[in-house]
């Protein structure tokens, strides 16, 4: 690649952050043919401008406030598939499982083994569509007006429908996460719906991409201490792992998207 100007490098970095959710300084240095110090300087400037969040070895995208489900589905699919591989290990045959609106939960729906006897309830049409022809799976669709940003029904009608359920397991969709606050949402109605279903579920778990960790969104949903398990990426930071363990919550670590290893519990 020919030598790029600072603005050109940072534009490319922003594009990669939008597509993948994170960047690594070493990989960018190789791509641009510059030193890692140069890339780190770019990332510091971008973080100071509010364009990313610096982490050890690279940077994470900031959680977009209202990105529609259709856009979230195409971001970091390999990483979400790895999280799904780990999360599916928490689901047992015979369960009634609520899959909350989440692009990662779409990946979980796709990863459920064919023929696994389950009842799956969801308020997200895209999740229902993934499972409607899945042998052995009974689908319950929560109705109501579909919020195009959430990608699901979260209104009063949806809450009345959900009132009839007592899920064995809720796989909660997380817009943001902070150890002190817990799982958070970007929209008030979505937070209300998530909390309503969580309080009616026997067990609650959530799968988190790295860029959501330490970045709470405006509306709290569920405390970390009340989650049975949190599924994290293989390279989640040690601070996040330690905070979750201190809360007494089980940590399940996903395999690397590039590898074939299985999940690990810690």
Describe the structure.
The chain is of the alpha/beta class and 266 residues long. The longest helix has 15 residues, at 6-20. Helix 2 (25-32) crosses helix 3 (36-48) and helix 6 (103-111) packs parallel to helix 7. The chain folds into two domains: 6-60, Winged helix-like DNA-binding domain superfamily/Winged helix DNA-binding domain (Arc Repressor Mutant, subunit A), CATH 1.10.10.10; 69-265, Rossmann fold (3-Layer(aba) Sandwich), CATH 3.40.50. Helix 6 (103-111) links the parallel strand 4 and strand 5 (118-122). It has an eight-stranded mixed sheet with strand order 6-5-4-9-12-14-15-16, with helices on both faces. It has helices spanning 6-20, 25-32, 36-48, 69-72, 77-88, 103-111, 125-131, 156-162, 188-199, 238-246, and strands at residues 22-24, 53-55, 58-60, 96-99, 118-122, 137-141, 146-147, 152-153, 169-172, 176-178, 182-185, 204-208, 219-222, 229-232, 250-253, 264-265.
